[in-house]
From TrEMBL:
InterPro entries: FAD-linked_oxidoreductase-like (IPR029041), Proline_DH_dom (IPR002872), Proline_oxidase (IPR015659). This is Proline dehydrogenase. Converts proline to delta-1-pyrroline-5-carboxylate. Its EC number is 1.5.5.2.
Length: 470
């Protein structure tokens, strides 16, 4: 039977609460809530409270993590890290700055610069049961556009990422991350988002443009249309290089460009996801509209006959989104509270898990979160629905250098776990790290538990050493 056989919707299970509006409908059929099972079904060892999860780390790695996390827990340093790093670079010079950063922050969160350095880091990760999800640290925001030649250079970097991900034996199911704004100007993304609020672009037109046909898209100037065609062909080259080899997870960005990002991602899915989920889209559950966007994507995947891959995140642009909404005097797009965001995340997670339990080859999800409650919720629902953790339709993801007590514990229990792994030179990765730090400041400032577990492990080793142990 074809992977794209359309199941009847009375088989669909669904959500208790999805965003702020539930229950919802899909293709005119009401989505019905599945019975919820509490965390009593969890394996007894999946508590994320055992410092021995860090026993695989060297003493140097423990000390480095403790030092870096101590710095990351200081709000002033996180909030001003961009300015502070620029100041340090001007005072120390390029070489001095690199000598300070490489063994500390860089080593904690970046795999390396050369392919050899990356391979060493990835082989160690693989030995711990973790899988790499490589990320080229390239992206742009409005006002940062660098021109067509730069986007073509970025394409070569993306294709190199596909090659590195596929040509090594770190994992049998490699993944990589892709920022659309590395290949298409954010200004065009904003323009397309504005146009999409009034009219929809046919995915077939985008696919034809990817294949090289000279399509004229309504609402765009000649130069914008030409850039759009070039951008679609760049995305097409990434898809052609990765299909059947590497799963490409397209990141969401800001709400003022996300509809355009989703449009081109759906076009890539339509072309490349006919027999499996090779292109995935990201859904930010701190947005009030995230639930409806996910349901629309599920409906579109059925109507357009392609498989759906979902990267589920809480979101990382909260401060900027709220500030922009306030400046533009429009409603805040972010959920009012952390509890609402949790409900949104777990609700969307439930919908995807229900679909995966019915057709694990058509739907895939990466539970990309540092939140222990959501991880436990996912594991519990997988058990209740009989989803086999070994087939990879459900996997988990955290950032390299963070939340290792969750990642390592999950991996030890046999769940597929990916770490988001940026790589590149110090100069290339510092802007990426600064942006990630500012977007994830609440996570960075809330890593007390991981720090405490690292301290417990360090004390245990010191006691063993004093007692003549290992």
């Amino acid at each position: 039977m074809s992977l794209l056989f359309r199941p009847s919707f009375h088989h669909f299970l669904s959500v208790r609460r999805l965003g702020t509006a539930a229950p919802r409908a899909l293709n005119g059929r009401r989505v019905v809530a599945a019975p919820h099972q509490d965390n009593d079904a969890l394996p007894a060892t999946l508590t994320f409270e055992d410092p021995s999860a860090f026993r695989v780390k060297s003493l140097g790695e423990l000390l480095r993590a403790l030092g870096v996390f101590r710095l990351c827990s200081v709000p002033f340093l996180v909030n001003n890290c961009g300015k502070l790093m620029s100041l340090a670079r001007s005072l120390l010079g390029k070489r001095g700055f690199s000598l300070v950063l490489r063994p500390t922050v860089y080593a904690q969160f970046v795999a390396g610069e050369t392919e050899k350095e990356i391979a060493v880091a990835m082989e160690k990760m693989s030995s711990l049961g973790l899988r790499p999800m490589l990320a080229v640290p390239i992206e742009e925001d409005v006002g940062e556009s660098t021109g067509e030649n730069r986007y073509n250079d970025n394409l070569e970097a993306m294709l190199e990422c596909v090659r590195i991900s596929h040509s090594n034996t770190w994992t049998t199911d490699p993944m990589m991350q892709l920022k659309v704004t590395a290949l298409m100007s954010p200004e065009l993304c904003v323009k397309l988002t504005s146009l999409l609020s009034e009219q929809q672009y046919d995915l077939d037109l985008l696919v034809r443009a990817m294949d090289g046909e000279s399509i004229r898209f309504p609402g765009l100037t000649d130069s914008e249309n030409m850039h759009f065609l070039c951008s679609l062909q760049r995305l097409n080259k990434v898809g052609e290089a990765s299909v059947l080899k590497v799963r490409v997870l397209v990141d969401a960005e800001y709400t003022y460009m996300n509809p355009a990002l989703s449009l081109v991602t759906m076009a890539m899915m339509k072309k490349f996801n006919q027999n499996g989920a090779w292109i995935w889209n990201t859904y930010q559950c701190y947005l009030k509209e995230s639930g409806s966007l996910l349901l629309e994507a599920i409906s579109q995947s059925l109507n357009q006959s392609f498989c759906l891959g979902v990267k589920l995140v809480r979101g990382a642009y909260m401060d900027k989104e709220r500030k922009l909404a306030n400046q533009e005097r429009r409603p805040d797009p972010i959920h009012e509270s952390w509890e609402h965001t949790n409900d949104s995340y777990n609700g969307s997670l439930d919908i995807m898990l229900d679909l995966i339990s019915q057709n694990p080859e058509r739907y895939r999800i990466i539970v990309a979160t540092h939140n222990e409650e959501s991880v436990r919720h996912a594991v519990s629902r997988m058990a209740a629905l009989g989803i086999d953790k070994s087939i990879g339709s459900v996997c988990f993801g955290q950032l390299l250098g963070m939340c290792d007590h969750v990642s390592l514990t999950l991996a030890q229990q046999g769940y597929p776990v990916y770490k988001s792994v940026p790589y590149g030179s110090v100069d290339d990765t510092v802007p990426y790290l600064v942006r990630r730090a500012q977007e994830n400041r609440t996570v960075l400032q809330g890593i007390r538990k991981e720090r405490d577990l690292l301290r417990q492990e360090l004390k245990w080793r010191l006691r063993k050493g004093l007692m003549g142990g290992r």
